[in-house]
Amino acid sequence: MNGKDYMKRWRIVQTILICVFFAAGCKIQPATHPAGSEEQGSVVSTEIGTNTESETSSEVDTSTEQESETGTESDTSTEADTSTESDTSIEPETDTEPEELPIPEDDAIVRIMDYIPSIQQELRYATTNNFTGQIIYDFDDAYLRYGTIKKLARACEELAKHGFGIKVWDGFRPVEAQAALWEICPDPKYVSHPDKGNRNHCRGLAIDMTLYLLETGEELEMPSDFDEFSALGDRDYSECSKEVEELCVLLESIMKKHGFKGYSKEWWHYNDTDTYPIEEEFVPTE
Fold first, then answer.
1. Are 226 and 130 within 8 A, CB to CB?
2. CA 228 to CA 224: how far, in whole Å?
3. Per annotation, catalytic residue among 218, 266, 281, 286
4. C-alpha span between 135 and 150 (Å, rounded)
5. Is the pLDDT of residue 153 over 90?
6. Is 266 known to be catalytic?
7. DSSP sequence for 13-55
């Protein structure tokens, strides 16, 4: 091998070595750099993860705080609504039972409605709507002897089974009122003499009445109006319809059953069969 060939080959070898070393250096550097990149990436990833978790946690905490604040506002709103409702609501009625009235003696004169709440009242002599056209007494509630009211209450219970209630036109009548009626109509067929007559209204045992429908409160058709001084007012019922007659007969039978007696000239008038003395001192009060 001559010198030229040797130099030529050496250059080839150098070229190969340089390529090998260069190639080796390129491979090592990429291998080393990615490792560093992974570490850096890991750090970055950890930092990002930490920041993300921190930010997420902060968002959750913030959201929780917001929810807590919202809950507080909701509670406040609820309290405000409750307070408002409490201020504007009607207080419930108490469950206390009404005070019971004392049981009076049978001869005591008492207000009918205190013991028979279902009755209606239209005291004609407390108005000008009566045959005199004048006000005869100045009280609006009907009174009777308690013994008479007990009988009337039993009659009301039986009438209620037929759907009827009692409407009172007159009950206890002061002696002065009886005298005023006699002065206007001195006829013993319709007005009792204030000194010599039976004066059952003044005894607190007589009642003038009609019937009404419990369901509607409407007054029923009867033979006539109150204080009718003609054949329409008597008890033979020949001047009225069959339906009205049947109604009057029913009323009369129930009242008789419970201790009352009717007056032949007035279909609306009933007397207690138990008697009481004339009351001259009792004054009805409003």
1. yes
2. 6
3. 266
4. 29
5. yes
6. yes
7. HHHHHHHHHHHHHHHHHHHHHHHHHHHHHHHHHHHHHHHHHHH
